[in-house]
Amino acid sequence: MFSSSSTFGAKPSLFGSTTTTTATNPNSEDIAVEGSPDDTVQVLRFSPNVNEKPLLTAGSWDGVVRVWMVNDNGQCEGKAQQNIPAPILDLSWTDDGTKIFISAGDKEVRLWDLASNQMAVVGTHDGPVKTCHWIKGNNYSCLMTGSWDKTLRFWDMRQLPTQTSLANISLPERVFCADVLYPMAAVGLANRHIKVYNLENGPQEVKNIESQLKFQHRCVSIFKDKTNSMPCGFAVGSIEGQQKCALSKKTMVRNSLILLSTISEKQSSIF
């Protein structure tokens, strides 16, 4: 992937020095990443490709997406970056780790091909696009995006460029956070509701949960059942410094999906 013909290859780092320095605390094992964003970091994502050295990408409010290679010793080498004229709100890798989806405050979703260093608009909303997630299913692959225009949209990447969504789900409020772990998707809304979807054979809502957290949701993360690696619940964090876990009773649907049929919630504070 990083041959001389690649946009990464033998070219010098786009962020200056290709080495990193350790944190100022000599007893710390933390590594300070060279060429860090100049504005608030909105999202960090590691590449899913386990056959290559890990890639880390960051999107920030200065409209810059950066990519680093993480070496065996934990040091990070800047490899590529792209600029767009809007704050970066979310990022998602394709399953092969060669492309990155970028959702932004200018109502557009872009696809960045790292090998060619080309970027194209692959979807649009009527408001800022808060979330984007690449879905790799058993029978299909597509991109899911959530927006402040109160819609959840699904995009077919097989024919580019595409501006017509495969599915358009109207929501009662703006999308603030989302996560996907096939075949489950969890979407957090501005009204503190969380909608859970079955993604098999197209998105189908299976649960609508009102969170007991009192303030705006900041993030949601689906977790697996360690016995079968299937999604079995999710955790939600909010701006109040609280987190809540929703656990599922195992209910099989079409012999493949574990849904949230009954919910027990556990809450804790980070303070």
UniProtKB/TrEMBL annotation:
Q: Superkingdom, according to UniProt?
A: Eukaryota
PANTHER family to which the protein is assigned, alphabetical: MRNA EXPORT FACTOR AND BUB3
Protein name, entry field: Uncharacterized protein
Repeat (WD) positions are: 88-122, 143-165
- Tell me which UniProt keywords the record has, alphabetically: Repeat, WD repeat
User: Mind telling me which InterPro entries this protein's record contains?
Assistant: WD40/YVTN_repeat-like_dom_sf (IPR015943), WD40_PAC1 (IPR020472), WD40_repeat_CS (IPR019775), WD40_repeat_dom_sf (IPR036322), WD40_rpt (IPR001680)
Positions of the UniProt region annotated as Disordered:
1-30
Could you list the residue ranges forming a coiled coil in this record?
Answer: none
